[in-house]
Specification:
Blueprint lengths: L1 E9 L16 H13 L6 E2 L8 E11 L8 H6 L6 E9 L10 E10 L13 E2 L6 H8 L4 E4 L14 E12 L2 E8 L6 H13 L7 H8 L14 E8 L1
Parallel strand pairs: 3-10, 5-6
Antiparallel strand pairs: 1-3, 1-4, 2-3, 5-9, 5-10, 7-8, 8-9
Helix pairs in contact: 3-4
């Protein structure tokens, strides 16, 4: 028996998130189906990040166990011939038998993209959040300084979360503009349910002038979801990659 690791990229538009569920098509469900068909036995993958419905990924990570003689590096080619066009394996390889992508120390990087211009662009509608009021990127960047480090992020945790602790470590945040596109890039050792989308929604309000940048510290200290801004739409969020430490 060997364990094979996969780096998975997907357009999350047509999926009910990553995690398998009984009444909806999911990315993990499609992976399990194609692997089971390929190997002729029931296969269950284990994913590193359970992205929500509509969220995209460039580098989610999954593993599965098999006694197949197919070399680990060949699974990417075999799966890409079977998977839907909006899911593609970027790399496959044999990993250590005890490697578990959810329980190993890792740093995840997400990007939230905001199309900030007067009118929408149809080709960007599935991969960014359109916001037509002018945003001050410098104020957004200033506000992020309060979030870096180890904090209680209860104010940025979705109501459905079932966690023992809301303390997380954010290792870096950057906000930058390229033309009409503003990107919020967040890296950290772990994230709460909807955390990046709530941070993004709050930064949008600060960028729009609804609050000064220093309001972010007040929101963080409140440890209350109602203190923060709205949860930004899923379409703007992409899991860029996971680095195992």
């Amino acid at each position: 028996m060997k364990r094979v690791g996969l780096i998975v990229a997907y357009d999350g538009t047509n999926y009910c998130g990553w995690q398998t569920q009984p009444n909806g098509i999911t990315v993990q469900g499609e992976l399990n189906r194609c692997l089971s068909e390929l190997l002729g036995t029931e296969i269950e993958t284990i994913g590193a990040s359970r992205t929500d419905a509509g969220v995209h990924a460039m580098g989610n990570v999954a593993v599965f166990d098999t006694d197949s003689r197919i070399p680990g590096e060949k699974f990417s080619y075999a799966l890409n011939q079977r998977l839907p066009e909006d899911i593609r394996i970027q790399l496959s390889e044999e990993v250590e038998p005890d490697f578990h992508p959810r329980y190993c120390d890792s740093e995840k990087t997400y990007e939230y993209r905001i199309l900030n211009r007067r009118f929408p662009v149809p080709t960007e509608r599935l991969y960014s959040y359109f916001y037509h009021y002018p945003l001050d990127v410098e104020k957004m960047q200033e506000a992020t300084s309060y979030l870096i480090g180890r904090h209680d992020f209860a104010s940025f945790c979705g109501a459905k979360a079932q966690v023992k602790s809301t303390i997380r470590i954010v290792t870096g945040i950057d906000v930058f503009r390229e033309g009409d596109m503003i990107t919020i890039r967040v890296s950290g050792r772990g994230f709460l349910y909807n955390m990046v989308r709530i941070i993004s929604g709050t930064l949008i309000e600060i960028g729009a002038g609804q609050y000064p940048p220093e309001k972010m510290k007040e929101i963080l200290d409140a440890k209350n979801r109602e203190a923060a801004g709205p949860t930004a739409p899923a379409c703007g969020l992409t899991l860029m990659g996971i680095e195992f430490l």
